[in-house]
Design goal:
Blueprint lengths: L4 E2 L7 H4 L20 H10 L21 E3 L2 E2 H9 E6 L5 E7 L6 E2 L5 E5 L3 H6 L7 H8 L7 E5 H7 L15 H14 L6 H11 L3
Antiparallel strand pairs: 1-4, 2-3, 4-5, 5-6, 7-8
Helix pairs in contact: 2-7, 2-8, 7-8
């Protein structure tokens, strides 16, 4: 049987490289890269295009291919599990065999990767309704596997399922202490990918930044 290795060993893609400092025998903080500070988040929120939410017609998760290959037998999901976990080890197939994951949405900690989902901070269906329906499939794949910004995060599976495709005016993380961070992540993703926000969403994000 192959000797277990840390899941970070051998990750060579650009997306994987972002994770290297996040999980090397230290307690991991499950925050993705690129989260703006409050001032930056407020400035980005002010620049977002306000528009009514578009139609869900034609949406299908398969139009956002994931999880993509990140090199060394690792896909995007496994790369995020490595980044957001503590003392993660895996076999040669890159799937975790041990580790712990603390979900910032609810504060719970898990030791089985099956109890952890990789959340798209801005859900794929929301992205579709706010601009991504006009993208190419290749661009939607980059969005669904975005390791460079705060779009992917490891969280408790049932909390992620409760969130579904809801925007912040409809759903917020159970831990109110995380609202500022969550809003900052959401805003940055919409800003970077030039997605729109509606009035209720904009107001909710503004209110959440007041928690900073």
């Amino acid at each position: 049987m192959p000797k277990p290795r840390t899941l970070l060993q051998g990750l060579t893609s650009l997306g994987a490289a972002v994770t290297l400092t996040a999980c090397v025998n230290v307690a991991a903080v499950a925050d993705p890269p690129g989260i703006p500070d409050e001032a930056t988040a407020r400035a980005q929120l002010a620049e977002l295009t306000m528009a009514p939410e578009g139609s869900p017609d034609g949406y299908d998760r398969d139009k956002f291919p994931h999880w993509s290959d990140q090199g060394d037998n690792c896909n995007t999901r496994e790369t995020v599990l490595a980044r957001d976990g503590d003392n993660v080890e895996a076999g040669n197939d890159c799937y975790p065999t041990s580790g712990t994951w603390s979900s910032p949405y609810d504060g719970d900690t898990w030791s089985q990767p099956s109890d952890v989902d990789i959340d798209h901070v801005v859900p794929l269906a929301d992205a579709w309704r706010t601009g991504a329906s006009e993208w190419t499939t290749a661009k939607r794949e980059r969005f669904a596997n975005d390791l460079e910004g705060p779009q992917l995060i490891a969280v408790t599976d049932n909390v992620n399922q409760e969130k579904g495709d809801k925007s912040p005016d409809e759903w917020k993380p159970p831990r109110q202490s995380y609202w500022c961070t969550y809003a900052s992540m959401w805003i940055n993703v919409k800003y970077r990918w030039e997605l729109t926000v509606d009035e209720a969403e904009h107001a909710a994000l503004d209110d959440m930044l007041d928690r900073c």
